[in-house]
From TrEMBL, chains A, B:
SUPFAM superfamilies: Zn-dependent exopeptidases. Residues 145-230 form the PA domain. Gene3D superfamilies: 3.50.30.30, Zn peptidases. It comes from Mucilaginibacter myungsuensis. This is Carboxypeptidase Q. Residues 1-20 form the signal peptide. Residues 260-451 form the Peptidase M28 domain. GO terms for cellular component: extracellular region; lysosome. GO terms for molecular function: carboxypeptidase activity; metal ion binding; metallodipeptidase activity.
C-alpha cells in the first residue's frame, strides 16, 4: 500500500513536472511571438499619432472607439462588440494662464486645470496665497485664514517609497479632495503641486472630486519647479506684494454617449466563463495618452492577437476590453460589471494594465491573503523568472475591473505591474507621448500578461 | 544534550534573525539616504553637461579626471589619488559622410566610424557592396566575391533574448572582428548595421579590433533604418548601379598619459583588504557618455558618499574607482590590477556598474557555480526583495574589474545588473545624454550597490 501511494505520488510529481515543462515551453513561445512578430508597438503608434488625446465625450474618443473595433475585427477575433455607456464630458477650453505676482513682477508658471474643475471668472482670479502641506492643515487654519485666498497645496512626493504608486497615493488627496476642503473655508481657488517626483516644468492634470457640501472653486496644478519657486517667494514676501493669478475656462457639457470596445476569443469548453484583460481607451487631453493608457489597451488587444497567431484555443472565453472613461468617472468599468451581471456571465479573473507600458516586474493580486499569494508564487514564480516578471504580490487590481468585485464576488482581480520609476514623470502631462514608450518593454508586458492569461485559462486561479 | 543542542540552534537562529533584521534596517537607511539626499544625479549632470564626451586621451578626459578627483576630495574621503596609465588616443576627425548610390541618386545615410578604425582616402571610398549576415559567410564567399568590395554586415539583434546583452553579444562580432575578416579577402571597406534592436536613424560607434594578419581597412556603422534601406536596395539593383560611398578621417595619435581616479574609505580593521566599486570615466565622443558610463562612475562615488554621510565605518577599505579607457583599450582596468598586485593589496570583491543607470534588477556573480549562487540567494535575496533588486545570478563581472581575476584569484567579481531594455537604444550614440537618465532609477542603483558593499564588508563573500 505504501509502495502504491509512493508510486502515485511519484506519478503526480512527474505529471506536475511535465506540466511545468509544457507551460514553460508555451511561455517561451508566447514571448517569442510578442518579441518577434509583435504588433502592439505599431498599434500604439497609430492610436497616439493618428488619433491622439481622447478624453471621454470628445470627437477623438469616438474615433478611438471606431478604430479599436475595426482593429480587433481585422484580427478576426470571434466576437467584437461595443458596450454603450453615458460618460461625463469635460472640456479644458483655452490654454490656462498662471502668474506668481511679486510686486510689479509677473512670473508665468506652467499650469493646467484639474480635470472636472470649474472655470475661473473670465478675467481670472487674483488673490493672496496660503501655502499648506495637507488637508488637515486647511481644517486647522480655518475660515479666518483661508477665506478669500488661493490655497496652495505643496506637499511633495515622499521619495522613500520604492514603488512610485506609494508616493502618488500619499500625495493624491491634495488634488482629489483639496479643492473642496479649501472651499469649505471660503477659499476662492486652489493650486496643487503636480503629483510627481520629477523636478520639471510640466503641470500634471488629473481629476478632482468636488464634494456636494462645498462650493465648486477653480482648481489647477502647477509644475513642481513653479511650486518650489512660489514657495520660496512666499517665504520672502507677504500680501499684498505676493499674489497669484490664474485663469481657466474649462467646463462641463452634458453627458455624452460612448462605448467600451470588447474583443473576444470564445472558450471551447466554457464559453460563458470569462478571463478579461483590459486597459482604458480614454486619455487626458494634454498629450497622446501613450503610457496612460494607450499601452494598456494595445497590450490587451495584443494578448488576443498572440493567442490567435499561435492557434491557442482557450477553454474559457478571453476578452480584451478597451474601457471608456477611467480618467474622470470610471463609467465604462461600471457598465462592464453591470452588463456582466445582467448577462449572467461567470468571471474567473480580470487583469488590468494601467500603470504604463514599462518593463514588466510582475502582478498584484487584489485581496489575496498571504497563503494565496504563496500559492500563486508556488504555481507561477518559476515560470515567470526567465522573463524577470516574477514579482507576484498582494495588491490592487485596477479601477476599471474593480466594479466586478461587487457583481462577481470571487473573481480574481489582478493588476499588471510594470516598473514604476518613470510613470509619474510623464503621467497626465504633455510628455505622455509615443516617443516615451520603449518597444521591447511594451512587448514584454504584453507577453507577460498573455502568459498569465494562458496559465489561468489552463489551470484556474 | 539534545536540549542544549536545540537551545544553541535556537540561539543561532535568533542571532541570524537579529542580524537579518539589523541588515534590513541598514539597507532601508541606505536607500533613504540615496533617495532623499542623493547627489548622484546632480553629479552626473555636471559630468555630462559641464564636461561632456571624454574619450581616452582627449582634453575632456583629462578634465573629467581632475574634476572626479576634486569631487571626491570635496566629500572628504580618507584617500583620493590618481593611478597613471598610458592610453590609446584615437580621434574621429571631421564628421563622416555616407551615401547609398542608386544610379544617379545619392541617398545620405547616418554613419559613424567605428572606434579605432582607420580613415578612408581623403576622397572617400566608392565601391560595390556585398551584404552578409556573418563572418562565416565572408569566409565562405572568399576573395573572388569579396575583393574590391565594401562588405556590409547586416545581421540584426535577435530579439528573443530577454536581456538585451544577449542580443548585443550575439551580433557584436560583426563590429569587433568583421573588418579584419573582410580585409583578409580583399575588401576595401566595411559597414556594419548598428548594434541595437531599435529601428532608428542613429549610428552606433564602438571599438573594432584589427587583427595583425590583415590590412587595416576603413570601417563604419550605419543606422538600422539605413541598413534596412540599403539591404532593400541591394535586392533590386546590382553593381554598377548600386554602390556605397563613405568617407571618414579618423586617426590614431601617440598613446597619451591619463589616469584612473580612486577614492577610498579606509577599513577600520583590515585597511589592506579592499572592496572595489567602479565604472569607467572615459566615454565615446558622440554624446555625453551618460548611461555609458557616467551613471556608473557617479554611482561608485555615491556609494562612498552614502557610507560617509551615514557614518558607516567599514571594516575593510572601500574604493570607488573611476577607470580610464574601458571603451578602447581597458588600460585603466589592467593598471588597477597591476598596481593591486605590486602593492600587495588583498581584494575581497569588486563590483562593476557599466550597464547603464537603469532601474536595478540585481547582480551577477562571475564564475559562481550553482551552489554558490544559491548561497548568495540565501544570504541576500530577502534583503534586496523590498527594493526589487533581488535577481542574483551567475554572470559576468565587467571589463574593468576583469583583470583582477589574474592578479587576485579568488576575488569575487560582481556585475551590477540594471534593467537592460533601453540600454542598446542609446549605447554609443548621439542619444547617450543626461536627459535619458531617470533620477530615481539612478539613485536606486547606487543604493543597491552600496547595500551589497555594506553586506560584503560585514559578512564577507
Amino acid at each position: 500500500m505504501k509502495k502504491t501511494l509512493l508510486s502515485i505520488s511519484t506519478f503526480l510529481l512527474a505529471l506536475t513536472t511535465a506540466n511545468a515543462q509544457t507551460d514553460s515551453v508555451m511561455l517561451r513561445k508566447i514571448f517569442d511571438e510578442a518579441l518577434v512578430n509583435g504588433q502592439v508597438y505599431e498599434n500604439l503608434r497609430y492610436l497616439c499619432k493618428k488619433i491622439g488625446p481622447r478624453l471621454s465625450g470628445s470627437a477623438n474618443a469616438q474615433k478611438s472607439v471606431e478604430w479599436g473595433k475595426k482593429l480587433m475585427e481585422g484580427y478576426g477575433f470571434d466576437k467584437v462588440f461595443l458596450q454603450e455607456v453615458m460618460v461625463p464630458h469635460w472640456e479644458r477650453g483655452a490654454k490656462e494662464q498662471g502668474y506668481i505676482i511679486d510686486g510689479n513682477k509677473k512670473i508665468p508658471v506652467p499650469i493646467c486645470a484639474l480635470g472636472m474643475a470649474v472655470a475661473t471668472p473670465a478675467a481670472g482670479i487674483t488673490a493672496s496665497v496660503i501655502e499648506v502641506k495637507s488637508l488637515a492643515e486647511v481644517e486647522q487654519l480655518g475660515e479666518s485664514v483661508i477665506k478669500g485666498k488661493i490655497v496652495f497645496y505643496n506637499r511633495p512626493f515622499d521619495n522613500r517609497f520604492i514603488e512610485t504608486s506609494g508616493a502618488y497615493g500619499g500625495a493624491g488627496d491634495q488634488r482629489r479632495s483639496g479643492p473642496s476642503v479649501a472651499a469649505k473655508y471660503g477659499a476662492v481657488g486652489v493650486i496643487v503641486r503636480s503629483l510627481t517626483a520629477a523636478n520639471d516644468d510640466y503641470p500634471h492634470t488629473g481629476t478632482t472630486q468636488y464634494s456636494d457640501d462645498a462650493p465648486k472653486i477653480p482648481a489647477a496644478a502647477i509644475s513642481t519647479k513653479a511650486a518650489d519657486k512660489l514657495s520660496a517667494m512666499l517665504k520672502l514676501r507677504k500680501f499684498p506684494q505676493a499674489k497669484f493669478f490664474f485663469k481657466q475656462s474649462c467646463r462641463m457639457l452634458p453627458d455624452a454617449k460612448s462605448y467600451n470596445v470588447v474583443g473576444e476569443i470564445t472558450g471551447t469548453e466554457n464559453p460563458n466563463k470569462f478571463i478579461t484583460v483590459g486597459g482604458h481607451l480614454d486619455s487626458w487631453d494634454l498629450a497622446e495618452g501613450a503610457h496612460d493608457d494607450g499601452t494598456g489597451v494595445m497590450q490587451s488587444v495584443e494578448v488576443l492577437r498572440i493567442f490567435k497567431a499561435m492557434g491557442i484555443k482557450p477553454k474559457n472565453s478571453i476578452r480584451a476590453v478597451l474601457f471608456m472613461n477611467e480618467e474622470n468617472g470610471t463609467k465604462g468599468g461600471l457598465k462592464y460589471a453591470e452588463l456582466a451581471a445582467a448577462n449572467k456571465e461567470q468571471h474567473i479573473a480580470a487583469i488590468e494594465t494601467d500603470e504604463g507600458g514599462f518593463t514588466p516586474r510582475g502582478f498584484s493580486f487584489e485581496g489575496f491573503n498571504a497563503a494565496r499569494v504563496k500559492e500563486m508564487n508556488t504555481r507561477f514564480k518559476k515560470l515567470f523568472e526567465p522573463y524577470e516578471a516574477d514579482r507576484l504580490v498582494n495588491g490592487g487590481g485596477g479601477a476599471d475591473i474593480g466594479p466586478l468585485k461587487q457583481t462577481h464576488p470571487g473573481v480574481a482581480l489582478i493588476g499588471f505591474r510594470p516598473d514604476s520609476q518613470r510613470y509619474f514623470d510623464i503621467h497626465h502631462t504633455p510628455n505622455d507621448v509615443f516617443e516615451n514608450v520603449n518597444k521591447r518593454e511594451l512587448e514584454l508586458g504584453a507577453a507577460a500578461i498573455a502568459s498569465l492569461v494562458y496559465l489561468i485559462d489552463k489551470g484556474g486561479i
